Prior knowledge:
Layout: E1 3-7, E2 10-12, E3 18-25, E4 34-39, E5 45-51, E6 57-59, E7 66-71, E8 76-81, E9 90-97, E10 106-109, E11 113-117
Parallel strand pairs: 2-11
Antiparallel strand pairs: 1-3, 3-8, 4-5, 4-9, 5-6, 7-8, 9-10, 9-11
Amino acid sequence: QLRLVESGGGLVQPGGSLRLSCAASGFNLDYYALTWFRQAPGKEREGVLCISSRGARKYYDTSGRFTTSRDYATNSVYLEMNSLKSEDTGVYYCVAHTSTRCEDDYKLWGQGTQVSVSS
Length: 119
Protein backbone atom coordinates (compact mmCIF):
# COMPACT_ATOMS: atom_id res chain seq x y z
CA GLN A 1 0.00 0.00 0.00
CA LEU A 2 1.29 3.42 -0.95
CA ARG A 3 1.39 5.85 1.95
CA LEU A 4 2.82 9.14 3.08
CA VAL A 5 2.84 9.82 6.79
CA GLU A 6 3.69 13.20 8.27
CA SER A 7 4.99 13.58 11.81
CA GLY A 8 6.74 16.09 14.00
CA GLY A 9 4.00 18.62 14.47
CA GLY A 10 3.10 20.09 17.81
CA LEU A 11 2.93 23.23 19.89
CA VAL A 12 5.85 25.64 19.69
CA GLN A 13 6.41 29.17 20.93
CA PRO A 14 6.82 32.07 18.51
CA GLY A 15 10.39 32.23 17.32
CA GLY A 16 10.87 28.51 17.80
CA SER A 17 11.67 25.77 15.32
CA LEU A 18 10.18 22.47 14.26
CA ARG A 19 11.17 19.73 11.91
CA LEU A 20 8.42 17.83 10.16
CA SER A 21 8.93 14.46 8.52
CA CYS A 22 7.15 12.92 5.57
CA ALA A 23 7.83 9.19 5.41
CA ALA A 24 6.89 7.13 2.38
CA SER A 25 6.02 3.47 2.32
CA GLY A 26 5.19 1.20 -0.58
CA PHE A 27 7.28 3.18 -3.05
CA ASN A 28 10.68 4.83 -3.36
CA LEU A 29 10.26 8.53 -2.68
CA ASP A 30 13.69 9.24 -4.19
CA TYR A 31 12.19 9.21 -7.68
CA TYR A 32 9.40 11.69 -7.04
CA ALA A 33 9.15 15.38 -6.37
CA LEU A 34 7.47 16.29 -3.10
CA THR A 35 5.64 19.43 -2.04
CA TRP A 36 4.76 20.67 1.41
CA PHE A 37 1.44 22.45 1.86
CA ARG A 38 -0.13 24.10 4.86
CA GLN A 39 -3.69 25.01 5.66
CA ALA A 40 -4.31 27.68 8.26
CA PRO A 41 -7.66 27.70 10.08
CA GLY A 42 -10.34 29.07 7.79
CA LYS A 43 -7.98 29.50 4.86
CA GLU A 44 -7.20 27.74 1.62
CA ARG A 45 -4.41 25.21 1.45
CA GLU A 46 -1.22 26.85 0.17
CA GLY A 47 2.11 25.57 -1.02
CA VAL A 48 5.18 26.05 1.15
CA LEU A 49 7.94 24.56 -0.95
CA CYS A 50 8.81 21.65 -3.22
CA ILE A 51 11.86 19.48 -3.69
CA SER A 52 12.42 17.67 -6.96
CA SER A 53 13.84 14.18 -7.21
CA ARG A 54 17.19 15.76 -8.02
CA GLY A 55 17.11 18.01 -4.98
CA ALA A 56 16.14 21.26 -6.67
CA ARG A 57 13.93 23.39 -4.47
CA LYS A 58 11.03 25.57 -5.41
CA TYR A 59 9.93 28.02 -2.72
CA TYR A 60 6.32 29.15 -2.56
CA ASP A 61 6.86 30.68 0.89
CA THR A 62 9.59 33.24 0.27
CA SER A 63 10.20 34.25 3.89
CA GLY A 64 13.45 32.27 4.00
CA ARG A 65 12.38 30.51 7.17
CA PHE A 66 11.62 27.11 5.66
CA THR A 67 13.79 24.56 3.98
CA THR A 68 13.47 20.94 2.96
CA SER A 69 15.78 17.99 2.50
CA ARG A 70 15.69 14.32 1.66
CA ASP A 71 16.75 11.45 3.87
CA TYR A 72 17.47 8.63 1.47
CA ALA A 73 18.15 6.16 4.27
CA THR A 74 14.65 6.45 5.68
CA ASN A 75 12.74 7.21 2.45
CA SER A 76 11.66 10.52 3.93
CA VAL A 77 11.60 14.24 3.31
CA TYR A 78 11.97 16.80 6.07
CA LEU A 79 10.58 20.30 6.42
CA GLU A 80 12.68 22.52 8.66
CA MET A 81 10.75 25.49 10.00
CA ASN A 82 12.53 28.31 11.82
CA SER A 83 11.53 31.60 13.43
CA LEU A 84 7.97 30.39 13.57
CA LYS A 85 5.14 32.87 13.80
CA SER A 86 1.55 32.54 14.89
CA GLU A 87 0.46 32.76 11.26
CA ASP A 88 2.36 29.55 10.56
CA THR A 89 -0.25 27.68 12.60
CA GLY A 90 -2.11 25.09 10.59
CA VAL A 91 -2.11 21.57 9.26
CA TYR A 92 0.93 20.69 7.20
CA TYR A 93 0.65 18.14 4.42
CA CYS A 94 3.15 16.50 2.13
CA VAL A 95 2.23 15.34 -1.34
CA ALA A 96 4.27 13.25 -3.74
CA HIS A 97 4.12 14.15 -7.40
CA THR A 98 3.64 11.69 -10.24
CA SER A 99 7.21 12.10 -11.39
CA THR A 100 10.46 13.90 -10.79
CA ARG A 101 9.49 17.55 -11.16
CA CYS A 102 7.58 19.99 -9.01
CA GLU A 103 5.47 20.82 -12.07
CA ASP A 104 4.14 17.29 -12.32
CA ASP A 105 0.69 16.31 -11.11
CA TYR A 106 0.02 15.17 -7.55
CA LYS A 107 0.13 11.48 -6.83
CA LEU A 108 -0.38 10.87 -3.13
CA TRP A 109 -1.23 13.03 -0.11
CA GLY A 110 -0.38 12.45 3.51
CA GLN A 111 -2.92 12.86 6.28
CA GLY A 112 -1.36 16.01 7.68
CA THR A 113 0.21 17.04 10.95
CA GLN A 114 -0.88 19.94 13.15
CA VAL A 115 1.51 22.78 13.91
CA SER A 116 0.45 25.34 16.50
CA VAL A 117 2.56 28.41 17.20
CA SER A 118 1.51 30.11 20.38
CA SER A 119 2.91 31.48 23.60
